[in-house]
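Look over what follows to help learners.
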Amino acid sequence: MTALCYGVQVLFDRDRQAQSEAREYSLRREQLRSTGRLAAEIAHRLKNPLAIINNAAFSMGRHMDETNSAAAKQLNMIRDEVDRSDLILTELMGYARLSEGRIERINVKEELLGAISEVFPPNHTFPIQIQQNISDILPPLMMQRAHLREIMANLLVNARDASREGGSVKIFCNSSPNYEIELRVKDSGEGIPAAQKEQIFEAYFTTKKKGTGLGLAIVKQNTELYGGEIIVESELGEGTEFILTFPTRVLSRDN
């Protein structure tokens, strides 16, 4: 009798877990689709007027007096900014396409090692050392694989670009007793000025000459979309560390 009751309880618990996961899948899918539709609509509406501005500037340049160097310089500036804006919109449209992907259970260590090998290929010549400490016991995350890889790749590329020659990039990933995964990526760069710490996650803010300013904004968006949190710790001359936490149990209790 005891064994029968135990078996019924196990079946009941499994059914309740399955229902909970089904609700989570549905919730995440709708959140992602809503975000993607908005990004796609904004990008599409802005692409057309940018093309018109670019064509007009090109046409004006062809008919402009070659001696008017000041005006030519202003036209080149317009076209450069149009190209930059178009790049930003292209990234937004790519992000919108990502939102239509499938949510699945993800092996975090496998994805992190894959991202590391992409950013730092086996035969890379970057003058920096890679130090990694990744736990073998990490619970799976329920999210889009492309979103997690986008988060990891952006953080690793930023750390690689920020680290000075002879420096290092440190990667740490572990799980906590309260069902969270913690990911840390630390570079050995110059650090972030205190005045910029609040700005680095803002869309279009960048200190790179050819940066779009969307990388960290997307990292923050993707992280928080799944109930996670991202913070940054940095000191001038001591490098910068990004600390991300992801809950592995989004629906902790039934409604």
Notes: Residues 104-247 form a domain with the Heat Shock Protein 90 fold (CATH 3.30.565.10). Strands lie at 103-106, 129-134, 141-144, 168-176, 180-186, 229-235, 239-247. The CA atoms of residues 102 and 144 lie 6 Å apart.
